[in-house]
UniProtKB/TrEMBL annotation:
It comes from Skermanella stibiiresistens SB22. Residues 47-168 form the Integrase catalytic domain. Keywords: DNA recombination, DNA-binding, Transposition. GO terms for molecular function: DNA binding. GO terms for biological process: DNA integration; DNA recombination; transposition. InterPro entries: DDE_dom, Integrase_cat-core, IS_Transposase, RNaseH-like_sf, Transpos_IS6. This is Integrase catalytic domain-containing protein. SUPFAM superfamilies: Ribonuclease H-like (SSF53098). The keyword DNA-binding applies.
Length: 220
């Protein structure tokens, strides 16, 4: 089960592909069961991985891309640091100041983040208002600098492409909750591949698998 939960979110494959891969290994698991495992355990995996992440730095890059959920465009807000390490992410139907503020509040609540020195965004008008409101509410450091420089956001743009590559085989999402749980799996495995887990290299697949096993082992 953990193999399914870790393999699907990092590879551009469908649930039917995953069913065939398991059958090749002598396991008969229906693709709908694979889907239920992802829905149940991907959020739990993120919850258990978060306390083991390295600190991100104070130079944030924030942007959003869009995904289709039941024929409706939904926005995926994302923040990474200057090294490309994932800070946080959030799905939102509206694309406005309130959505940007919700991303910031969620990111500030994580144990591996620091109050940013700089926040780099594109030219959308929602971000200056969100940053000003967060400073007024004393949720954001008052000396944090907002930079609206599009080319400096190439790091987060590259991360968008990774998500789009993984989403394509799924042929879209049917429900917002389903989309969120799968995206949590994508992002959690991406954080591990980026070397964000303390003491484990981003290319050390064996150590990462052992780490995940230990997270779910009641005797560990």
């Amino acid at each position: 089960m953990l193999w399914v939960v870790c393999w699907y979110p990092q590879s551009p494959i469908s649930y039917r592909d995953l069913e065939l891969m398991l059958r090749d290994r002598g396991l008969s698991v229906n693709h709908t069961t694979d889907h239920r495992w992802i829905q149940a355990y991907a959020p739990e995996l993120e919850k258990r991985v978060r306390p083991h992440l390295r600190l991100t730095n104070g130079s944030w890059r924030v942007d959003e891309t869009y995904l289709k959920v039941k024929a409706r465009w939904i926005y995926l807000y994302r923040a990474v640091d200057s090294r490309g390490r994932t800070i946080d992410f959030r799905l939102s139907a509206p694309r406005d100041t309130a959505a940007a503020k919700r991303l910031f509040r969620k990111a500030f609540a994580q144990s591996n983040t620091v109050n940013p020195r700089t926040i780099t965004v594109d030219k959308k008008v929602a971000y200056p208002k969100a940053v000003a409101d967060m400073k007024q509410d004393k949720r954001l450091w008052r000396f944090s600098k907002l930079r609206q420089i599009k080319y400096l956001n190439n790091i987060v743009e590259q991360d968008h492409r990774r998500v789009e590559r993984l989403v394509r085989p799924s042929l879209g999402f049917k429900r917002l909750r389903t989309a969120w749980n799968i995206l949590v799996g994508y992002k959690t495995l991406a954080m591990m591949r980026k070397g964000q887990v303390k003491g484990i290299g981003g290319d050390d697949i064996v150590a990462q698998a052992a780490f995940v096993d230990a997270l779910f082992d009641p005797a560990a």
